[in-house]
Amino acid sequence: MTWSGARSFLGLVALFAGIYYFPQLLENRSNSCSALERSLLNQGNLGSEVALLRVLQGSSDGTIASKIVKKEYPNIPSEIGCVITYWRVTLDPTIGQDMLLRGLLIGDIFKR
């Protein structure tokens, strides 16, 4: 591998690492699913659903977002699905509102 090829490869690695870790750093959370939950809470025009999520989020650490995302992307790890969803929600907040409402209206996200 030439020097320019190595730099390109390292640049791609840095880009993907930034895309993956930026939500956690921006939202000051320990994982991407918890960062997604925080992002959804910050949007907040959902009334009682957001109030319920706020109560549950203190002990959730991303569990609720993980289950919602797992329904949306059943074939990929939830941590990666949370990153994808975080960026989708950042670019179009209505996606997050719809996803949150669908997830909260489906009672089995609260099952262990």
In short:
Helices cover about 80% and strands about 0% of the residues. The protein has about 110 residues and is mostly helical.
Count of folded domains: 1
The helix/strand order is HHHHHH
Low-confidence stretches: none
The percent of residues in helical segments reads: over 70%
Number of helices: 6
Task: Give the biggest sheet.
Answer: none
> In one word, what is the shape?
elongated
Structural class: mainly alpha
Beta-strand content:
under 5%
The overall strand count is 0
Give the averaged pLDDT, no decimals.
79
User: How large, in whole angstroms, is the Cα Rg?
Assistant: 16 Å
The end-to-end distance, rounded to whole angstroms, is 48 Å
Structural write-up:
The chain is mainly α and 112 residues long. The chain has one domain. The chain contains six helices and no strands. Helix 4 (63-72) packs across helix 5 (78-91). It is elongated, with a radius of gyration of 16 Å. The mean pLDDT is 79.
Layout: helices, strands, pairs:
Blueprint: H1 3-27, H2 32-43, H3 48-60, H4 63-72, H5 78-91, H6 93-105
Helix pairs in contact: 1-2, 2-3, 2-4, 2-5, 4-5, 4-6, 5-6
